[in-house]
Design brief:
Oligomer: heterodimer
Structural class of chain A: mainly alpha
Radius of gyration of chain A: 26 Å
Order of helices and strands of chain B: HHHEEEHEHHEEHHHHEHEEEEEHEE
Number of strands of chain A: 9
Helix content of chain B: 25-40%
Strand order of the largest sheet of chain A: 1-3-2
Strand content of chain B: 5-15%
Distance between the termini of chain A: 42 Å
CATH architecture of the largest domain in chain B: 3-Layer(aba) Sandwich
Largest sheet of chain B: 8 strands, mixed
CATH class of the largest domain in chain B: Alpha Beta
Largest interface: A-B, 70 and 82 residues
Shape of chain A: globular
Number of helices of chain A: 25
Shape of chain B: globular
Structural class of chain B: alpha/beta
Radius of gyration of chain B: 23 Å
Distance between the termini of chain B: 66 Å
Chain lengths: 553, 433
């Protein structure tokens, strides 16, 4: 007898389930790094005597992948294509399509540029009056970098060492300068110091600016040594012609005389708590000393720093940790950007080994994303079972990744998801669309106005968000039924109303409607006197306002 | 077929209609949002002894050594001169209006804490707990709103409002207790429902059904919180009490007194925020936080204080205190003035002061707290506390006492352990007669 390919696959799956995991892994064509992830995570389950949840249904996993890789939910057509695909390696192909197919390059780049703009300059950076930061400049640099899949070490080096102008369209434009433009002039570049070490190396030194850290090995001396690398750098204000309005900034490296006034030994002073003054020169966190001359022609301190940073395994671990958190909802450490010795990771070996693999793969971010997105823990359902309900990081337990942790979409993901379902709203140039999105996003952000640029967001499931979803323009625009709109086109399709409702649920939730949901849709249709478009409008509004829609699950 | 609940009888308010909906929509979609109204019979009795608190949050770390605990003549003293007040202590010359209100206020000069980082300090001062990766502690506003809401069955607007800032979150109490963040002009986005009522009801019923399913599939508390937030949102959309946010309707003279005019850089916003806070407390909101940020002066501190912070603070805080007093509300409303820490007595090479938590001041008053006093002392240059040191927990415990909340009240934290609401602090006895 001959078996059709699907049956063979099914038999293989059943067989695999009966065999030890290691054998199944070896037989699969998963990247070895994904197998590494699975091995370590499974070991954790065994150690803690937990059983993982079953795999997530295809539709929900597909929704997850689109949200996390390109920053929006899939369109009904995209979801259909995946659900219809009966090939054994469909997951693999979907992830690869989102990462490598030209059709998705722009969205991929936009998504990661958004994520990284928020990391590097915060949600409000560049929006202050007379800001030296150009948000469009930051975003342009990042977009170009992600579109070309620039190796991560090159990005780090460029961001740390950038010189040039912050604003697109000006002479010497270099968007990478926006990371440091607002962080080098004030307060002896302390913000450049703490941000660079925290964001790229996972080392939180901000407390040691003024005193030795009470519970880790970071000392005040270390802070000022790290700080010394930024002291040749200045952001020069450039004014709009004939006004006193800042147009942009120019980031330059200049000779630094040091605080003792001797450029051949350009040191900085700092005060201990007891008032005693100490000195510091440029020394990397591992103790490597750099020529203490402040002359740029002798040594460009930021370049020296950049070279050492990208050699450090802390950089590898930090990006792996950040990426993991992006896909899994929790990092190996809490908070994600604290890899200090006092903060033990939930899976230290995995973090270490993945970091090393990332370095071996020439810092290819798309590979790292693929490894994680194809892993078993990322494929699990978000529903807990009796044997893993205790795995709840919200209760302060280290995460074991036995199920997919629920989390709310970000404001940007919501925006992009709604705009993409509605062809009508994606009008105008890229820049004007960005500006419009930025305006919309600002309603949720509050800056605390501290030297560290702390912010909070009200897009967190609280009332302002609910009001926006109830009554805001964004949702109203996505429930229009004009021709060319998602609902308008669906209303005019030649299919049963019930099937149209299923389409809505697939589009919004990645699943079909339940029987009760179909029943209420029917009642709505009657209440709307048979007007299908109006019924779809009501249903879509309800879907968008539901928890199930806004949660990545 | 729809049942009769789908048609709104003429003349019914949406609120009233919704309360009918609560029991009657089973045929639609199972029970709709339970918009049950608690009995209002006791409302008047409760109004008489209901307590509130207003937190004036000085984000960035205010320089209390230049304001409430001055060291004239000491090398750390800075250029400002102290002036006498209506209480028994002296304060900075740049707060002449506040000097006339100090008989209502107690200055605690012996705060001594350990968190000198903005994030950690903000968390600690807002919760009474140091940050801990395993517990997400609820902040002042969430705790006090949670405890005081029972006194206000008629409240239809959020019990915890934060004006012009982010405050700190509800922690494990969940999003239903999150701060409602508004700007100081009180304008709230997306408040207007642009849909006729009946159709909205029908949409809500559909939404309710979708929600129920999701909650049923053991999705934990987040999903349940979402339902509560939807209900609260719905309540406030149709509530007359939202009038309290219309701070622009205040007489010009009143706005002027608070410094709520001229909305320049940091100016006006805080004054208007304080005025809004008064209106909200009058409307029954138990906790309002008003933010005045930008105190993080590592350089050029004295100019910033003279020209920006102190005049704004002086006007707004004094007007608020006086106003509450005149309206007979001060006896039931606690005012708490604090930041995440103070600033170093040492003036650095940039004419600034850095973060300093070891010895600093906070100011409290109202709600039966003894006014006109100073509590605790620092040494001659302000570097250490010489009397009994007080912590965030002590302060919060004392505020709870003033508001009639037992500091022994215990919550079960997200790690299933019991947690005392104010971190198990001690009562600062001198605050109470």
């Amino acid at each position: 007898m001959t078996l059709c390919p699907q049956t063979i696959t099914r038999i293989a799956v059943v067989l695999a389930a009966l065999l030890p995991a290691s054998w199944a892994c070896a037989q699969s064509n998963l990247p070895s790094q994904t197998q590494l992830i699975n091995k370590h995570i499974q070991q954790g389950w065994i150690d803690y005597e937990l059983k993982p949840s079953p795999a997530s249904p295809d539709g929900k996993w597909c929704r997850r992948v689109y949200l996390d890789i390109i920053g929006r939910i899939p369109t009904p057509a995209e979801l259909d294509a995946f659900l219809q695909d009966k090939g054994a390696d469909k997951d693999h192909r979907l992830v690869n399509m989102l990462l490598h197919d030209d059709r998705y390059t722009e969205e991929y780049a936009r998504n990661w540029a958004t994520v990284w703009t928020n990391i590097l300059i915060g949600q409000t950076g560049g929006n202050e009056r007379n800001s030296l930061t150009s948000r469009p400049g930051m975003s342009k640099y990042l977009r170009d970098s992600f579109a070309r899949n620039k190796p991560y070490n090159d990005m780090v080096f460029e961001l740390v060492t950038a010189t040039g102008s912050t604003k697109p369209g000006t002479e010497n434009f270099n968007g990478a300068t926006n990371f440091l433009a607002m962080k080098v002039n004030e307060d002896q570049a302390t913000l450049a110091t703490s941000s660079t070490s925290r964001i790229f190396m996972g080392l939180q030194v901000q407390c040691t600016q003024c005193h030795n850290h009470p519970f880790n090995q970071w000392k005040q001396q270390k802070f000022w040594e790290f700080n010394s690398f930024f002291r040749q750098t200045r952001a020069l204000r450039r004014y709009a012609e004939g006004t006193r309005d800042v147009s942009h900034a120019e980031l330059v490296d200049e000779d630094f005389a040091g605080e003792a006034g001797d450029p051949s030994k350009a040191i900085v002073f700092y005060e201990l708590r007891n008032g005693v003054t100490r000195t510091a020169g440029p020394v990397f966190m591992d103790g490597t000393e750099v020529d203490v001359s402040g002359y740029v022609s002798d040594v460009n301190r930021r370049e020296a720093l950049g070279k050492m940073m990208i050699e450090s395994e802390f950089m590898d671990k930090m990006i792996v940790n950040r990426m993991w958190a992006h896909f899994m909802g929790y990092a190996f450490t809490k908070p994600v950007d604290d890899l200090g010795p006092h903060n033990v990771a939930s899976h230290p070996m995995l973090l270490e080994e993945l970091g090393a693999e990332f370095r071996k793969a020439s810092f290819d971010l798309k590979q790292l994303i693929q490894w994680i997105a194809l892993s078993e823990p990322y494929r699990l359902s978000s529903q807990t079972t009796r044997s893993n309900a205790s795995d709840d990081p919200q209760q302060g337990e280290p995460p074991k990744f036995t199920h997919f942790y629920l989390r709310q979409m970000s404001a940007e993901q919501l925006y992009q998801s709604l705009v993409s379902t509605n062809k009508a709203s994606a009008r105008g140039s890229y820049e004007s669309q960005e500006a419009e999105r930025n305006r919309w996003l600002q309603q949720f952000v509050t800056a605390f106005g501290t030297d560290e640029g702390d912010e909070s967001t009200s897009f967190n499931g609280s009332i302002p968000q609910a009001l926006m979803m109830f009554n805001g323009d964004l949702v109203r625009n996505s429930t229009t039924t004009d021709s060319g709109s998602f609902l308008g086109d669906l209303a005019r399709e030649n299919m049963k109303p019930g099937d149209k409702v299923h389409r809505l649920f697939l589009a919004g939730m990645g699943r079909r409607a339940s029987r009760d949901e179909l029943t209420i849709a029917n009642k709505l249709l009657a209440a709307r006197k048979g007007d299908q478009a109006a019924m779809l409008q009501d249903m879509w509004w309800a879907i968008l306002n539901s928890n199930e829609f806004i949660i990545n699950h | 077929m729809f049942n009769s609940q789908w048609t709104t009888p003429a003349g019914m308010t949406r609120r009233h209609f919704m309360s009918h909906m609560a029991g009657g929509s089973a045929a639609m979609a199972g029970a709709a949002f339970t918009l049950g109204q608690t009995l209002k019979a006791n409302a008047d009795v409760l109004k008489k002894n209901r307590k509130s608190a207003i937190l004036l949050w000085m984000g960035g770390g205010p320089s209390t050594i230049d304001m409430w605990d001055m060291k004239p003549g000491a090398p750390t003293g800075g250029p400002f001169k102290p002036i006498s007040t209506s209480g028994d202590g002296q304060i900075c010359e740049h707060m002449p209006l506040m000097a006339k209100q100090m008989h209502h206020m107690a200055v605690i000069r012996s705060m001594s804490t350990r968190e000198a980082d903005h994030d950690r300090g903000r968390y600690y001062m807002h919760t009474g707990f140091v940050p801990n990766p395993n517990i997400d502690h609820p902040s002042y506003g969430s705790v006090l709103a949670h405890e005081l809401i029972g006194q206000r069955p008629e409240l239809e607007i959020p019990p915890f409002v934060t004006v012009g800032g982010g405050s700190a979150g509800p922690g494990f109490l969940g999003m239903a207790w999150a701060p409602f963040a508004v700007t100081s002009n009180g304008q709230i986005r997306n408040l207007q429902m642009k849909l006729e009522q009946q159709r909205l009801m029908q949409r809500m019923a559909a939404l309710d059904l979708i929600e129920k399913d999701f909650v049923k599939k053991n999705r934990g508390t987040a999903a349940e919180d979402h339902q509560k937030v939807l209900k609260k949102t719905f309540d406030l959309m149709s509530s007359e009490q939202m009038q309290a946010f219309k701070v622009s309707e205040e007489p010009e003279a009143v706005k002027e007194r608070y410094g709520a005019t001229g909305m320049g850089m940091g100016g006006g916003g805080f004054g208007q925020g304080c005025l809004l806070a008064r209106r909200l407390v009058e409307a029954g909101v138990p906790f309002v936080e008003v933010d005045l940020g930008g105190w993080d002066s590592h350089s050029d501190i004295f100019n910033t204080l003279t020209n920006r912070h102190l005049p704004v603070l002086d006007k707004a805080m004094s007007a608020l205190t006086e106003d509450l007093e005149q309206r007979g509300m001060l006896q039931d409303t606690a005012i708490i003035w604090m930041g995440e820490f103070g600033r170093t007595p040492r003036i650095n090479q940039n004419a600034g002061r850095d973060h300093f938590a070891r010895a600093w001041s906070v100011v409290v008053g109202g709600a039966g707290i003894k006014g006109g006093i100073t509590i605790g002392e620092t040494n001659s240059d302000g570097t250490t506390v010489e009397t009994e040191p007080f912590s965030s927990e002590d302060l919060m415990t004392s505020v709870c006492k003033a508001l009639g909340i037992s500091p022994d009240t215990t919550y079960t934290a997200n790690n299933r352990r019991p947690m005392k609401i104010a971190g198990g602090g001690k009562i600062i006895k001198d605050l109470f007669v």
